[in-house]
Amino acid sequence: MSEHTLEADYVIVGAGAVGMAMADTLAAETSAHIVIVDRRARPGGHWNDAYPFVRLHGPSVTYGVNSTPLGSGRIDAVGLNAGLNELASGTEICAYYDRVMQERLLPGGRVSWLPLHDVGEDGVAVSLVNGQRRRLVARRRWVDATQADTQVPATHGPRFAVADGVTCLTPTELTQWRQPAAGHVIVGGGKTAMDTALWLLEHGVDPDAITWIRPRETWLLNRANVQPTAAFAHQTLAAIVAELEAARDATSLPDLFDRLEAARLLQRIDPSVQPTMYRCAIVSEAELAQLRRIRNVVRLGHVQAITIDRIVLEHGEMATSARHVHVHCSAGGLPRGPVQPVFQGQRIVPQYVRRCSPTFSAAFIAHLEATRDDEVEKNALCEPVVVPEVPLDWLRMHLQTARNQLRWSQHADVQDWLRRSRLEAYAGLFGQLQGQPDHAWLALQARLKQARGPGLERMAALLRSASGVQAQASTSEPSVH
To answer: Is-contact 279 272, C-beta < 8 A?
Structure first.
């Protein structure tokens, strides 16, 4: 089959949240021609594969692309998110990205869209429909947005053996299951498992008929503290101040997390179990109360195999039956690859540049690409913030975000962009309240000024201490051959 060449200034591989945020900002701030290529039929990345009851776990107001609002800006009046900024559903997000592509990107004539194509390392895009080959040429840079592709159960099957006759479903298949179950077994401890537990409870399943295999307990962010809109400005700034004050006053790492939990900044489902995981997952206090209704929690490590009558785990076994429904919620989520420079000559590898902010980070990286030529300067302004995995990453994310923000504060044009950025939200929100005769706001600002320096210094000291202990432990362990 003949091979055609398609040339553009930028070739973006991956039309998920990160790739779309990059494309939107590059299209808005440059005159570049862009090719977007993805193996899926529609833009939106993993949202196309996610379970039907999935929602954002952070507010819609700070998700999507910079140019186009997501949602209507409402405050939810009912449900477990009542009183907080709306959370878009998976269906709404897919429709949103389709609209951005069809109404925002393609009409200008500078963006080409190649759905249902695989791209090889040789730069050739192969159609998954008819096998047609196109050699893609990027005059400026390739953008590799594939590393941000979230793993979900529908696309990444269980990493444990499942015997014939066992009912093991993805969350999507669970919504289609129409047979009575002797009980439900949720496998996984992350956000997908939490969403599945809430869905089962919402649909009348007795919490005592649910068994939850949670290999690890996780720290969770409180959604009430991440509400970057005017109605919540004081609450949001108070949470930022409280984090820094907790760090400033902490006597040790365990004491820090105790203080964060006491201030309702971090939460856990079971207060009696020390979390060993942190992935930026966000829940409301109402959701947390529901999750705590499930008392049959198994902590025997990861599942190794499910047979007709037994579940084999790393550290033991438990009974099950052919009439139990097992729900696979143990896909990897957002992969944690090695931290690397964002700008790499002919290649851009988008990564977090602010904690827990994938779409803002992608738009910010695209803005730097649009406005600066010096690659050293660009990399200095967007040193990657680690994708979190363990509680210590809460510190790492905080500190690297603070370092990046300090550098941003030294550039007036960057500060102006941040104030105007829909995805940033915080800078514009807090800027609106500057200089107003609001005594409570002024008091919060005074506390912030007093706590920021000492709080960050204490975070750095705690991280050095913890990293030193880990290094000492690893060097003292005997080699295993």
So the answer is: no
Question: In this predicted structure, what is the pLDDT of residue 304?
Answer: 97
Distance (Å, whole) CA 198 – CA 51? 13
Q: Which of 243, 242, 259 is nearest to 251 (CA)?
A: 259
Residue 75, exposed/middle/buried by CB under 10 A (0-12, 13-18, 19+)? middle
User: Exposed/middle/buried for 336, CB within 10 Å: 0-12, 13-18, 19+?
Assistant: middle
On whether the CB atoms of residues 16 and 334 are closer than 8 A, the answer is no
User: Counting every residue, how long is the chain?
Assistant: 481
How far, in Å, CA of 388 to CA of 397, rounded?
8
| pLDDT of res. 1 | 52
Please give the structure tokens belonging to residue 192: 């997908």
Q: Which residue has the tokens 């991956």?
A: 14
CA pair distance 409, 15, nearest whole angstrom: 31
- Answer for the pair 25, 367: CB distance below 8 angstroms, yes or no: yes
Share of the chain above pLDDT 90, in %: 88
Sequence-separated (6 or more) residues with CB below 8 Å from residue 92? 70, 71
- The angle formed by the CA atoms of residues 179, 181 and 183, to the nearest 5 degrees, is 160
Q: What is the pLDDT of residues 56-95, one digit of tens each?
A: 999 999 999 999 999 999 999 999 999 999 999 999 999 9
Q: Which amino acid is at 110?
A: R
Mean pLDDT of 223-243: 94
pLDDT, average across residues 212-219: 96
Count helices and strands in the chain by DSSP H and E runs: 13, 20
Alpha helices in 90-218 (DSSP H): 90-99, 171-176, 191-202
Nearest CA to 129 among 114, 117, 113?
117
pTM over 0.90: yes
Can you tell me the mean pLDDT for 373-383? 97
Confidence of residue 472 (pLDDT cuts 50, 70, 90): very low
For residue 386, give the 3-state DSSP assignment: coil
**Are the beta carbons of 215 and 299 closer than 8 angstroms?**
yes
